[in-house]
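Let's study today's protein:

:::
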Amino acid sequence: MMLTIETLAGGYGEVNILNGIDLALSAGEVLTVAGTNGAGKSTLAKAVVGLLPRVEGRVLLEGRDITRLPAEERARAGIGYVPQVANVFPSLSVRENLAVVEGVADRRQRIAEMFAMFPALAERSRARAGSLSGGERQQLAFARALMTRPAVIVLDEPTAALSPARVAESFERIAALAKTGTAVFLIEQRARQALAISHRGAILDAGKVALEGSAADLLSDERAARLYLGQG
């Protein structure tokens, strides 16, 4: 397995948000984690990338225990992260946002590859990131996370605040990324659309996995539809 989460618990202060989560993710697989607001989805993302202050259990990357590694070392080990907010440097240009990413040996070539993947960014390479539209900023955050060629990428609500057309583009991009072999750990409120491009899904409730299975099975599960998936 590329990413393994074992009996993961933890939170902030003395309060547990996560209450014993077991999940696994293979190379080239998209795993959607859905659930109602407050279920622990974003907290789980932070636990995986090393930003949750208190964690019990284990996080393994290709069998290596990275539970005690800080976020920057997890990034160097192969975990990319696109947070929901504060995901770019607004005062830097688009190109500078990509150029400051650490751990990239072939920086110039990789930036060119990102511009080929995201043509809208190439057109605005000299613009400050703070002037970008919501969709362009999301693309830049995605490109920044891909600069290091991560083995696993954690996406926390990547379609938040996007227009319907941009949402569809975002999901297409995620599906295409998985086909290159990257494992995608996708936190998403638009559960139905996310599961439609996923291999498997997990639904959190009160910091636990309430339902887990293939994406197709979850989409056809009446209980999942009634309690968690909604219409989007």
Observations:
- The chain is about 40% helix and 30% strand.
